[in-house]
Design brief:
The chain is of the alpha+beta class. 46% of the residues lie in helices and 21% in strands. A six-stranded mixed β-sheet has the order 13-12-16-10-9-18, with no helix packed on it. Strands 3-2-1-4-7 form a five-stranded mixed β-sheet, sandwiched between helices. The longest helix is centred in the first third of the chain and has 66 residues. About 4% of the residues have low confidence.
Length: 594
Amino acid sequence: MTESESPRRRASRRRRRRRARLRRALLTTLVVGSLVLGLAGWVGLRGWQARAHLVNAAGLAGELSAHLVGGDTARAQRTLAALQEQSGAARRATGDPGWWLGRQTPIAGANLSAVRQIAIAIDDLARQAFPALLRVDLGDLVPQEGRLDVSGLRAVTDELVAVDATVQQARTELAEVSGDRLVGQVRRALEDLRGEIDRLAAMTSAADRASRLLPPLLGVDGPRRYLLVSQNSAELRATGGMFGAYAVIEADQGRVKMGAQGSSSSLGRFVKPLKISKELRALWGDLPGIYPADVNLSPHFPTAASLYREMYRRHSGVTVDGVLAVDPVVLSYLLKATGPVRVPGGVSLSAENAVRTLLNDAYQRMAPEEQDSFFAAAAATVFDTLFARNVHPNGLLSAFDRSIQERRILFWSARPEEQRTFGDSRMAGTLPEQDTVPTVGVFLNDGSGAKLGYYLRQTADLTVGDCHADGRRELNLRVTLRSTAPASGLSKSVLGLGRTGDPYTVRTLVSVYGPAGGSVLDTHLDGAETSVGNGTERRRQVATVNVEVGPGGARTLEVSLLTGKTDSGAAELWLTPTATPWTTQVVTAPSCSQ
């Protein structure tokens, strides 16, 4: 070998080594790539399988709900079995090693983890919560022949406690799933499921509280007395309507009966006003402490109930244990379950005509002295029917649930330990001092001194706007009030005091409550700046505007607001329950961190 060949051979060996390393690198890349592609294909296949199972489970869950409400236990059992099969398959499809490896990847991992949590939540509900709900005898939750079976109610308490624990756990685990890196389809599925479980959690929590509270409330530990008050939606107040007729409800060992009845006007006027908070006085003067009809100018029901209880005590010498408020729309829902009833005077009340009869026809056709006795007789007849007839429990529970969700049934206990159990549930009517989701309140108080609220139609649109550097967020509210009142032909009882000058013009004091810790920026009525009464209540800024609407007319109020510090792109509305339901829309936005 010559000296000149040595470098060539060394170069050749280096080239061979480089080619070998390249081959090994290519082979390694090919093997790893094949594994990754295989994993991706496996996860993709399993993902489609999981998706199919979850879609089927969602449909079956809806069917199950319908069967439960309809009382079809046999079909509910079959649907539950199919639901468990689909939810279990989705859980298995998202729980194998391939899926677990996919969850560790930087991009797809968050989405695969979210789908896994969705599958677990649905399967847990299908196996732990829904079977217990099927085992509960709904008949134990409603009165039968004038009495509630307290022993039966206690028997379902353990089941309801277990159901609520499962639902709350699923809700907590889903709340911990971050939506920041999720693709749109997965994010929407997560948000939809969170919304459904939030509603389910509210119901199971309420059922849990009811099963524990009803025995003492119904006099198991000693007789109880309550004031049942009817909110007259024809003359609006923030919580629903002016407190009109009342009745004393007496409960003892589960048996309930109606006692003395009367009207708010019979309680008189309190020349020395009852004590109210400085915030409430700044908004409404001493009116809530003087007139029984004005105790609920504030939307905070515990304030209204405690004032009314004290007024009744000073008038009658009787101290009641709490206040229950309902409106004629509640009666219409209950009459759908009980069927029509005939009240003294030959009038038939049904689900279809109760609201019109109680809020309009009675004022049009009856003299003032006849109206109070008619309302008392109607309330007594519906009450007796509710407690005397054997009504299917599903219909009654649906009526109660709908009424509570619409804030038409409100309850306050004078016993602090019981009131705390209600917390910030819708039935408690508590205006919270903190928001989990930014909430805007729109509350209506009649300023006409008339019964024209029956003719109002209301819409409210809330849009989530821009994020601010300080962590707050803009909200834009648009409220429209429209009057369907005729221009003539109404009775003096309907037209009332006619404080607007034109007795057919509806005057409404619209109070907009900003989110907790937020602020009200500006207000416009029909596009023009308008005068506003300002104040605060329970950490919320309040702006009150006088809105007058003539027959067939409409007025639009636009309000800009700021939330407290929040990352949320969601928002909620809290509205005065009215004779005709509101038309509403909430337009959400991505969170500020997205």
